[in-house]
Write a structure and sequence with these properties.
Radius of gyration: 18 Å
CATH architecture: Orthogonal Bundle
CATH class: Mainly Alpha
Largest sheet: 2 strands, antiparallel
Helix content: 55-70%
CATH topology: Tetracycline Repressor, domain 2
Distance between the termini: 51 Å
Order of helices and strands: HEEHHHHHH
Oligomer: single chain
Strand content: under 5%
Number of helices: 7
Number of domains: 1
Length: 178
């Protein structure tokens, strides 16, 4: 089993080989895959609550629903306890550049959250909560990209203030309000 310490020692070789003092190679990355998949499943399960058509507390205000979804994702990936998930995500993104199966899995992991965001933004436009001139597809892509950037930034700067970033994201979302 790979320890948190061994994950912290990983480096990436541009030729695609995982290198580490602990010898993590393709087989080691494959061993990590179930843990990465479980983390992704937990987030997707939360998103299905919002996208599944069942009762959603903030459904009358899609921007509030997006804020709640954002907080759930931030809690799953940007807290101190989620340090290993962040590192596994970065390893997965790196390996995706060299492995088609990993690439497909990483891409699939972004598809559902993006689809849920598009649906909430379009619903907001239909109800008058979101400005009509917002391109829901492009905005959802920007939101997913921003989250990925925040995940990477949290790895580089563990002192990044989650409350401050959350407030900044809330302010950006409020800029979409009709």
């Amino acid at each position: 089993m790979t320890s948190r310490a061994s994950i912290a020692k990983l480096s990436y070789n541009p030729a695609g080989a995982m290198l580490s003092e602990t010898g993590l190679a393709a087989a080691g990355l494959a061993a990590l895959a179930p843990r990465v998949e479980q983390a992704r499943k937990e987030v997707l399960d939360d998103l299905k609550l919002w996208h599944g058509g069942g009762p959603v507390p903030a459904e009358k205000d899609p921007l509030d629903a997006i804020k709640l979804m954002m907080r759930a994702i931030f809690g799953a990936y940007l807290t101190k306890a989620a340090e290993e998930k962040r590192r596994l995500s970065l390893i997965t993104w790196s390996e995706a550049l060299f492995d088609e199966a990993v690439f497909a899995s990483a891409r699939d992991g972004m598809r559902e959250p993006r689809k849920a965001l598009v649906a909430m933004l379009k619903h907001g436009q239909q109800t008058g909560a979101v400005r009509k001139n917002v391109d829901a597809e492009a905005m959802a892509s920007a939101m997913v990209s921003m989250f990925q950037g925040l995940l990477l930034h949290k790895i580089w700067d563990p002192a990044m203030s989650l409350p401050a970033v959350t407030e900044a994201c809330d302010q950006l979302l409020e800029g979409l309000r009709a």
